[in-house]
TrEMBL record:
<feature type="transmembrane region" description="Helical">
    <location>
        <begin position="142"/>
        <end position="167"/>
    </location>
</feature>
<keyword id="KW-1133">Transmembrane helix</keyword>
<keyword id="KW-0472">Membrane</keyword>
<feature type="transmembrane region" description="Helical">
    <location>
        <begin position="22"/>
        <end position="47"/>
    </location>
</feature>
<protein>
    <submittedName>
        <fullName>PTS glucitol/sorbitol transporter subunit IIC</fullName>
    </submittedName>
</protein>
<dbReference type="InterPro" id="IPR004699">
    <property type="entry name" value="PTS_IID_sorb"/>
</dbReference>
<dbReference type="GO" id="GO:0009401">
    <property type="term" value="P:phosphoenolpyruvate-dependent sugar phosphotransferase system"/>
</dbReference>
<keyword id="KW-0812">Transmembrane</keyword>
<feature type="transmembrane region" description="Helical">
    <location>
        <begin position="68"/>
        <end position="90"/>
    </location>
</feature>
<dbReference type="GO" id="GO:0016020">
    <property type="term" value="C:membrane"/>
</dbReference>
<dbReference type="Pfam" id="PF03608">
    <property type="entry name" value="EII-GUT"/>
</dbReference>
């Protein structure tokens, strides 16, 4: 009988912990993301959606600007997860590649720009503490991680373009390359 009671208590504690996590999101990340959405939409309204679309079209013209520059700028300015929303200005064909590059960039830039992905800062801090224990400079590692991340995120985005083309052809779907 004690096992059944312990199981029931553990089962209920799982839902209590889930509720606590949900409430922490409602007082933590949800208001921040909401304010970022408001700020981004306000900026777009002030600049004009046509100008933002032109910027997206210009960045969509080549893979370097599409998968290196635009993800870097959007992650630096908007942070994770809001930076992914910049993909809404790209043509449908390039959205999967942008999301692939963007999501990776939010991780590889944490050492230099911790504001981009504070939710996963503990990963970087764990690595950094090991590097400090060895007597090495953590900024050297952070810069290398950022640079390697830029290159690999670009490769990931570009490879996703090829996969998008393959799957589109396989499924008989045509995605637009223009806005």
């Amino acid at each position: 009988m004690d096992y059944i009671v312990q199981f029931a208590e553990g089962f209920m504690n799982l839902f209590k912990l889930g509720g606590e996590t949900f409430i922490s999101w409602m007082t933590g990340i949800v208001p921040v993301v909401l304010m970022l959405l408001v700020a981004m939409n306000t900026l777009i309204a002030l600049l004009g959606e046509e100008k933002v679309n032109k910027l997206a079209q210009a960045s969509a013209k080549n893979p370097v600007s599409r998968y290196m520059i635009l993800p870097f700028v959007s992650a630096f300015i908007l942070g994770n997860p809001m930076s992914i929303s910049m993909g809404r200005f790209l043509p449908e064909y390039y959205k999967p590649g942008f999301v692939a590059a963007q999501m990776q960039f939010c991780h590889t830039s944490n050492g230099v720009f911790p504001h981009i992905n504070p939710g996963e800062l503990f990963v970087w801090m764990g690595i950094a503490s090991g590097i400090q224990t060895l007597g090495l400079n953590t900024m050297d590692l952070a810069i290398r991680y950022l640079l390697v991340g830029l290159v690999m995120n670009f490769v990931g985005g570009w490879v996703t373009d090829f996969m998008t083309a393959y799957v589109s052809k396989q499924q008989g779907i045509t995605l637009s390359k223009t806005l």
